Amino acid sequence: MPTFASFDGTEISFDDQEDGPAVVLLHGFAADTNINYVRPGIFDALLDEGYRVIAMDFRGHGISAKPHDPAAYADDALTRDVRALLDHLGLDSVAVVGYSMGAGVALRLGAIEPRVRAVVALGVGSASLERGTDDRPSFGDALLADDPETITDPLGKQFRRLADSIRADRIALAACMGTPHAGVEHHLDEIAVPVLVIAGTDDDLAGDPGAIAERIAGARSLTVPGDHFDANAQPALQRALLDFLAAS
Question: Cβ-count burial of 152 within 10 angstroms (0-12 exposed, 13-18 middle, 19+ buried)?
């Protein structure tokens, strides 16, 4: 996969396939493009509908560079990486689809980036809002635990299991999770593009997607079967995503 040097020189890996209206895919924490979009079939479904599909592995994730210094993730670095990718590819109009952590970035881009024409936020909701900017889950401790059996936080245990299953750089992930950044709740009232928010009915990490949609003018929300780790594979989610993009 190709790479580009982001705003601070960090090498970011991305995939860019086909022509048509551009859709940028942003994955969730500890995951990557393959886990959140290729395996569930979203990537191919978008290609089949005639979209140009662009997916980026965030710094610290996938096959992008993995800095261990928390400062590398500060100052809205993830959002700035996406904007740098748009610059690199010369894109002037994109829809952005984000999952979990990537949904927070997508929503922020919807508020501040004029090249974004629509946003789909997956795997976020009322629980995402309740955590706030400084109330971060204890995923960092779970990622760095010497013995996974000592992890007591259920979600931390799931993310540790995910990280271990793909042999992720757990130090880089902990640095990313431990660095303060704008939360999902920021800038929602500044978004003026179409927005769809979707979460699984059993997604305790996200909660009710309607809580986010009601804070964005004209936004819609939907719940589908599944939890935080499998809702993206649900046909109902993928159909709603495609219908929304077609109308936006």
Answer: exposed
- Check: pTM over 0.85? Answer yes or no: yes
Please name the residues in contact with 136: beta carbons below 8 A apart, sequence gap of 6 or more. 177, 178
CB atoms within 10 A of CB 3: 15
In this structure, what is the dihedral angle of CA atoms 114, 105, 200, 120, given to the nearest 10 degrees? 10
The DSSP bridge partners found for residue 98 are 26, 121
Residues 39-91 pLDDT 10s: 999 999 999 999 999 999 999 999 999 999 999 999 999 999 999 999 999 99
Q: What angle do CA 122, 245, 230 make, to 5 degrees?
A: 30
Q: What is the DSSP letter of 81?
A: H
